[in-house]
Specification:
- The protein is an alpha+beta fold.
- Helices cover 45% and strands 12% of the residues.
- It contains 15 helices and 12 strands.
- The chain has helices at residues 2-39, 60-68, 80-97, 105-128, 140-145, 166-179, 185-195, 199-218, 233-240, 245-252, 278-287, 321-336, 344-355, 383-393, 440-443, and strands at 154-156, 160-164, 227-229, 254-259, 262-267, 294-295, 300-302, 360-366, 372-378, 402-405, 409-410, 428-434.
- The strands form 3 sheets. It has a 6-stranded mixed beta sheet, covered by helices on one side. Strands 2-1-6 form a 3-stranded antiparallel beta sheet, with helices on one face.
- The longest helix has 38 residues, at 2-39.
- It starts with a helix and ends in a 17-residue tail after the last helix.
Length: 460
């Protein structure tokens, strides 16, 4: 694996060098243009020697042209009072026409307070009202507008700092690896096998290639191990049509030839990739792993009204949208039979089946001033990861705080190593942020978040 790490470090250094070289060449080109202009008399004028006689005065014709040229009349400048009035009018027009969301701290806090007050009034009205009605199913377009987030996104530090969906990263990783084939064919091909094929196919291919290389290392002079018939069933099923497999064999010294009318791969030490030996290639083949993606938190800061959106995108589910619909139909049928008494074991099995539907969880943390922060987590991440996420968002990262679940209360030290799956914080949960040293009425007027996070507040 050390060779693979050096491979990516080398690619990053090459990319940084190209950026620096481009900047240097651009600067050099600009300096060269300025120097050339000065030499040709542009900009600073034409040079002359100190003891050289003064140049002749311009001819009368040129001076006459200058005299006859039209000179526009000079307008009276605005007074300070007129200039101030014009600026004030312009600013009023800009404020009237602008529809941008105000992300200032005061405006966001005021908006949050208004929404909290409206939410309290709405709850009072609902509690006083005795009428009930059934809500109709919303359309797919309405659901898309109410999505809590637009998907699940990842980073890949080994390649660059972009944030992309998993499918986009798979394509980008494939393009990146194929671009490196001409530089380090053997090592890159090992990575292509792991990253551009499904796991079962990659494992079968690696096992077969390992056997080919081990046979040559142990028996380099035996002819039967130096030839592979390409029409062989094992080779056709497990190697030939796997991305990267033939590149590994070519880097190892195999070359395609035709013997008795059949295509063969024949090994020769002279055909090996320069600077690569079979032992090193075999080690890279055995130890290469898929390039890991890091889950991006996709952090958002929400107002109370925006936090009501809890519809999750399809990326959060472990199953396909069609299977989700079937699951919902099964739930509807289960409601009809809800009058049937169920044992505790039956209810637990149903709950576990529901939890296994999700691959990711949406965690929201509500602060005393009404704002929320939202992040995406894998269902097998730990409770301690949520605390680290919240701590990284605080203006004072050394502040001691608690996160409170509506169902289970505060999390203890023993809970820190439990997963979100274990604590059933799936698929989405709201945790309350509290600071033991600050009373709740006082905390409502305190801004705990970093100032730069307010730029992440979404427009209404």
């Amino acid at each position: 694996m050390s060779k693979i790490k050096r491979f990516f470090s080398k690619k990053k250094e090459e990319a940084a060098f190209k950026v620096n070289l481009k900047y240097t060449l651009t600067s050099y080109t600009k300096i060269s243009k300025i120097t050339l202009q000065m030499r040709l008399g542009g900009g600073m004028g034409q040079g002359h020697k100190l003891n050289e006689p003064k140049p002749d005065a311009p001819s009368s014709s040129s001076s006459k042209r200058d005299k006859d040229a039209y000179i526009p009349p000079r307008r009276n400048e605005l007074s300070n009072e007129a200039r101030a009035a014009a600026n004030a009018a312009l600013s009023r027009i800009e404020r009237k026409d602008s529809k941008d969301f105000n992300t200032s701290l005061a405006a966001i806090k005021a908006q949050a307070k208004r929404e909290l007050e409206a939410e309290r009034k709405q709850k009072q009205e609902l509690s006083c009202s005795s009428t009930t009605g059934s809500a109709s199913a919303s359309s797919s377009a309405q659901e898309n507008r109410n999505l809590a987030c637009q998907g699940v996104f990842f980073r890949c530090p080994l390649i660059n700092d972009e944030v992309l969906p998993k499918q986009a990263w798979k394509q980008k990783i494939k393009e990146f690896l194929y671009q490196q084939l001409e530089f380090e064919r053997g090592l890159t091909a090992c990575l292509i096998i792991q990253n551009c094929n499904v796991k079962e196919r990659a494992d079968d291919c690696i096992a077969t290639l390992t056997k080919y290389l081990e046979n040559i290392i142990q028996h380099p002079n035996e002819e039967k191990f130096c030839k592979i018939r390409m029409s062989n069933k094992i080779f056709s099923d497990k190697v030939r049509y796997v991305d990267g497999a033939l590149d590994v064999l070519h880097a190892a010294g195999f070359n395609e030839v035709e013997l008795d009318g059949e295509p063969f791969l024949v090994w020769s030490s002279d055909q090996m990739e320069p600077g690569l030996d079979l032992a090193t290639l075999l080690d890279a083949l055995k130890n290469s792993e898929p390039i890991q993606l890091e889950l991006d938190r996709n952090i958002k800061v929400l107002l109370p009204s925006q936090a009501r959106r809890v519809v999750l995108p399809d990326d959060f589910y472990r199953i396909s949208p069609e299977e989700i619909k079937r699951e919902q139909q099964m739930r509807a049928e289960a409601i009809e039979s809800s009058q049937i008494l169920k044992t505790k074991a039956m209810r637990e099995r149903e709950e576990q089946r529901t939890l296994r539907m999700y691959r990711y969880a949406l965690i929201r943390v509500k602060f005393p001033n009404g704002l929320y922060i939202q992040g995406t987590f894998n269902v097998y991440e730990k409770i301690s990861d949520i605390f680290e996420f919240v701590q990284s968002c605080l203006a004072d990262e050394s502040l001691e705080f608690n996160l409170v679940s509506a169902s289970d209360g505060k999390f203890s030290e023993d809970d820190m190593e439990k997963t979100l799956y274990d604590c059933k914080l799936i698929p989405n949960i709201v945790l309350l942020f509290s600071v033991p040293s600050i009373p709740t009425p006082v905390a409502a007027d305190v801004n705990f978040l970093k100032e730069e996070l307010f730029m992440l507040v979404q427009p209404m």
